[in-house]
Inverse folding.
């Protein structure tokens, strides 16, 4: 039993208890963790072989006390304390919504979402899982969409080694008994991701199923969700995705999703981010238990519309994948995927990556992980660096014409992007009394070129007459002009 | 006075009458043209210098009689007859809606719409107008969007030689007196287009105005429309576009457009096609006086949605222009414009062309005409030839996934297109008992390659793993299998 944990780290209380009957069903276990007036009550869970665990993520560096409750005498009333020390290096806490349309870590550091997708990577053989981690380590991604249940689909016909439930393909599943071996691997991988600074966007349900996990009844779904939240909620890098393509799960209705959302909201002491990913029909992201939009859509020009509609962060985590497979969602070019990332960024949203190249061994990043073969990741990394150099609170859409994208922070920072557009020039009307740094960004070739030292007044920017260019304009408050900076009714920057 | 006209040609009755007062206002003139029970009553118009004209487009090869009516005695009760002979070569009559979502000429020949845009070409100097016609002659276009009123906008700051109204820039305009010199040139150009087999999509109003033509009052608008219809309706290659970007004409409301549509519908004896082109907000194309959708929108994947909504032909005559000017609607690549044409085609719709390259003399095809500098026109020509080789009644959308485009005529002809998609292969499930010709079309390089002689049963098509490829699949009813072709419940062709 650890007696110390770091802030947003994992404190785990392990207890021994009964292993007869069905402990998953028979044993109730919870604990109350207290620091001053702050009280959190995570559920415990049965981990097999007579082991019971209660996991807790402290959010304040202080001495916390705890006391268990159980219907089993030997697990009830166990109390103690532990010291929560300050967060270690690289630990910024869980990601939360910040500044309405953006994200930040609990310690206030910005989190610009650059996700990828490897639905079934933890269901692959050990060496492939390790390769996935190695790829992630050198890549630009800080979120990964991944399923608890295995995937049945084209290119996904091999049974995994372990399943969330006890049972077998031939003999069927016991939806009231979980497989702790499966969860131990899943948790190990979540911690591996945490080490890499990557959020695990955990997909709780999905339709690509030949085992019956997508058609369990309501009670089994609830039982499963309670167990998963008890096991995983204390990992700081968890996001909850109710489903991948909820609208393809014909057995579930909107009320079911409402219910699952609310159940997870009730159970999760830390209120990790919650979303529900669509196929063709959006779940109503405006509902109060939804923290952000998780969208599948190929048209990133609509990000602004979705921001306005739902008033929440917009993450288009599926906007087609770089690749060349036969399916229409999995065969765009790297140029096109990178374009979609930029179109989202300059409308105040976030896109997501995936890769689906035909592979002799049918190992496709989008589901299996492994290696990346494409050209988009390094450009996504470049965009990420651009975003991280910009305002920490994120950038919001500027008044623009329909097709040009532009976002920024008025009076400070402006980022314009021309993806399918390729203007030979743009005219800038720069509000007076400031100097401006104007940089031309080639988003594909990853170059940044300042047009001249500093610019003042109106200016015509010559552009290289090709696709995928961006303009970054930064206001420089020279000392001579600093007095005028904050004045009311200042003209806004215009570009046309 | 001609005593003969060809079917869908122009019969013009010229009369002399008063030139004192204001004949445009004072004189009412109409005529009744009869053949058996068929009676048409076109309005006449004052052509200046004491000349009055009544124009008539006969639609039946027969002897027609006519008799004028006027409030002026010398113009009233004039009667006569003329012989309408069969249409000459290249004269297929006016274009009408056919097969609900498509077009055909009055003689039944298909019309696949491949339009371009030269808003103000007839307002340019003579040699430029001639150059425009020469360019059109060798190009793929069979429709042109063009304005009656001159254009005021970036790159459009030169006053034209003539205006529709009498008056002057300095002295103002008389909205009750038309300028016959202006109309004579316009009509000459409409006839030039007719000779080239090009429909003149006449834009009656538009917002880009510094002369006051966009803000005339209702009575002046009506007066203008009556005159224009009287002059132009008898040209078989006229289409009526109520406006370019009606929603940018702040002085006009939806009721105004309803009224203008209905007035033109009432006045035009031949019921030429009528539409209303949007900027950002569509006019309701479902209204009964609208014959087809005329749409500005960059996303051609939505053609199917608009077909389903309006149940009429969808012409996206503005989907951004090939070019490199600063404005976001005028700087896409040729590849992208050609892609948009194809995306529309394989969803049962029609796209439109325009070109806006920066030019040292500010002569941009989109408004001035002149020469084409881009690379899209020849690919549009290639698409036109593909369409003309297909079913004459047009092709309609097939059941498809969201992004792949496919249209055809079930059991006969299938055209699939992968624009941003670039699958390395596609799997075909071909209904049995037929042979299929499968051709791979490189829409950019304009090649057509048959995959092998004929295919039967399931088939995997290997594709060259690049953008802008199409598949054309034609059913070949070999004699052995012809009996099975029409059978009920036949499996449909599937592709994935």
């Amino acid at each position: 039993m650890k007696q110390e944990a770091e802030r947003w780290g994992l404190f785990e209380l392990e207890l021994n208890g009964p292993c007869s009957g069905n402990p998953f069903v028979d044993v109730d276990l919870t604990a109350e963790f207290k620091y001053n007036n702050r009280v959190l009550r995570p559920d415990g869970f049965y981990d097999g072989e007579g082991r019971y665990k209660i996991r807790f993520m402290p959010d304040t560096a202080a001495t916390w006390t705890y006391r268990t409750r159980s219907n089993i005498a030997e697990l009830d009333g166990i109390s103690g304390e532990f010291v929560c020390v300050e967060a270690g290096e690289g630990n910024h806490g869980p990601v939360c919504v910040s500044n309405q349309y953006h994200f930040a870590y609990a310690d206030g550091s910005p989190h610009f979402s650059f996700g990828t997708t490897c639905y079934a990577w933890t269901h692959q053989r050990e060496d492939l899982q390790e390769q996935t981690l190695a790829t992630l380590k050198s890549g630009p991604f800080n979120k990964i969409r991944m399923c608890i249940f295995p995937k049945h689909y084209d290119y996904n016909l091999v049974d995994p080694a372990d399943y969330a439930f006890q049972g077998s393909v031939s003999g069927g599943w016991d939806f009231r008994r979980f497989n702790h071996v499966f969860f131990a691997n899943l948790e190990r991988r979540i911690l591996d991701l945490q080490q890499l600074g990557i959020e695990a966007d955990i997909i709780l349900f999905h339709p690509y199923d030949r085992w019956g996990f997508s058609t369990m009844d309501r009670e089994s779904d609830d039982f499963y969700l309670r167990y998963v939240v008890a096991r995983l909620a204390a990992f700081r890098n968890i996001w909850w995705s109710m489903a991948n393509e909820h609208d393809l799960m014909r057995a579930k209705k909107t009320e079911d999703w409402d219910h699952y959302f609310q159940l997870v909201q009730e159970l999760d002491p830390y209120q990790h981010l919650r979303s529900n990913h669509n196929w063709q029909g959006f779940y109503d992201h405006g509902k109060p238990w939804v923290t952000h939009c998780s969208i599948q859509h190929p048209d990133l020009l609509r990000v602004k519309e979705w921001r306005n509609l739902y008033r929440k962060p917009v993450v288009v985590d599926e906007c087609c994948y770089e690749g060349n497979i036969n399916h229409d969602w999995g065969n765009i070019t790297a140029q096109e995927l990178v374009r979609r990332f930029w179109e989202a960024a300059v409308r105040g949203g976030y896109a997501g990556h995936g890769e689906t190249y035909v592979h002799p061994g049918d190992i496709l990043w989008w589901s299996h992980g492994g290696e990346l073969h494409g050209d988009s990741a390094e450009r996504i990394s470049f965009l990420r660096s651009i975003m991280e150099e910009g305002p920490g609170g994120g950038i919001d859409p500027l008044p623009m014409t329909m097709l040009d994208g532009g976002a920024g922070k008025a009076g400070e920072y402006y980022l314009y992007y021309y993806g399918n557009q390729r203007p030979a020039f743009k005219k800038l009307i720069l509000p007076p009394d400031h100097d401006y740094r104007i940089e031309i960004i080639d988003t594909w070739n990853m170059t940044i070129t300042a047009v001249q030292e500093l610019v003042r007044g109106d200016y015509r920017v010559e552009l290289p007459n090709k696709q995928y260019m961006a303009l970054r304009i930064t206001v420089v408050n020279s000392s001579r002009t600093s007095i005028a900076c904050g004045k009311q009714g200042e003209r806004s920057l215009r570009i046309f």
Q: What stands out?
A: Chain B has three domains: 4-85, 95-389, 398-495. Chain B touches chain A through 32 residues (CB under 8 Å). Residues 398-495 of chain B form a domain with the Immunoglobulin-like fold (CATH 2.60.40.3950).
